[in-house]
Design goal:
One of its GO terms (molecular function) is cAMP-dependent protein kinase activity. Keywords: ATP-binding, Kinase, Nucleotide-binding, Serine/threonine-protein kinase, Transferase. The protein folds into 3 domains: 90 residues, Jelly Rolls, CATH 2.60.120; 52 residues, no CATH class; 93 residues, Orthogonal Bundle (Transferase(Phosphotransferase), domain 1). Helices cover 21% and strands 27% of the residues. It contains 5 helices and 15 strands. A 4-stranded antiparallel beta sheet has the order 1-8-3-6. It has a 4-stranded antiparallel beta sheet with strand order 2-7-4-5, with no helix packed on it. A 4-stranded antiparallel beta sheet has the order 9-10-11-12, with no helix packed on it. The longest helix is centred in the middle third of the chain and has 24 residues.
Length: 284
């Protein structure tokens, strides 16, 4: 990246020129024109950009001429520098196409949706996925608070049994209705298989990461976890118990320790739990 200053009335770029990057306007104004009659002239100002054709085409030929209306300072950013910051640009464009296609698909599905029906987020509805909330049997409740309720549910008539996670969000404060979201309970493997060194894809990691977040939310509701406990200090053992690890000994005592809800100390809100500290695992 480098700074480029265009003086008033200076033509910075001519139509047909090539550049390996694009310009971001820091201050000033730019007039963008074209020789084609059907292309409207544009006035660009601070935080606008020009020359972005270099980002999406192999031959980055300018389609417009650029003239400074007043003294204008720009930041010239090369394509390779931008990719180092945000990733490969073609892959970003491809992900954007998929995102827009998914958004369009969901909007179309919402138009056809009826009360108590599910709007699919996947490209194709799986055969075992129910079309309505009436196609589910509640197996048990996982957790609940004033807003959310998470339940383990079974698809009616499924053989073998198909279990899913149902999260219901109450919106009764706004309207007399609830919002339900249905998740697969297991995508491609058990949690225990990760400790055996088996390779797993992104879907496996995303699913169990979501389960950890739900577990942490449950612990917060029970008053167990404080804001000073780092998320990396949680683990799930083979028995399925959520544990706290790497909690270091805090030698200082806090005056308000008796009224504090924290059990993992820090230098700002420090106090001792037992006077000995916990360096392996701790349960509340």
């Amino acid at each position: 990246m480098r700074t480029v200053v265009f003086e008033p009335n200076q033509v910075g770029l001519h139509e047909g020129m090539t550049e390996p990057g694009f310009f971001l306007i820091i201050s000033g104004r730019i007039e963008s024109t074209s020789k084609m009659d059907n292309v409207v002239s544009l006035e660009l100002k601070t935080l606008d950009y020009f020359g972005e054709i270099a980002l999406v085409r192999r031959r980055s030929i300018r389609q417009r001429s650029i003239r400074a209306i007043e003294s204008t300072e720009c930041l010239f950013i090369r394509k390779d520098a931008l990719e180092l910051a945000v990733g490969n640009l073609p892959s970003i464009l491809e992900k954007n196409k998929l995102r827009r296609a998914r958004k369009t698909r969901i909007l179309e599905a919402q138009k056809e949706a009826k009360p108590n029906t599910f709007v699919p987020f996947d490209n194709e509805r799986k055969p075992e996925m129910p079309h309505s909330i009436n196609g589910l049997d509640v197996v048990g409740s996982v957790m609940s608070d004033l807003i959310n309720t998470v339940r383990l549910v079974e698809v009616k008539g499924s053989s073998p049994s198909v279990y899913l996670t149902l999260r219901s969000v109450s919106k009764q404060a706004i309207m007399d209705a609830d919002i339900h979201m249905l998740y697969n309970t297991q995508i491609d493997g058990t949690l225990e298989s990760s400790s055996d060194g088996e390779p797993h894809g992104e879907s496996f990691v995303r699913y169990y990461a979501a389960q950890v977040v739900m577990a942490l939310e449950f612990m917060h509701l029970e008053g167990v976890v404080s804001r000073t406990v780092d998320p990396t200090n949680r683990m799930v053992d083979r028995s399925g118990n959520l544990r706290m690890i790497n909690l270091r000994y805090v030698p200082l005592s806090c005056v308000s320790a008796r009224s504090s809800i924290e059990f993992a100390g820090c230098f700002v809100y420090a106090f001792q739990i037992t006077g000995e500290g916990h360096n392996i695992a701790a349960d509340y």
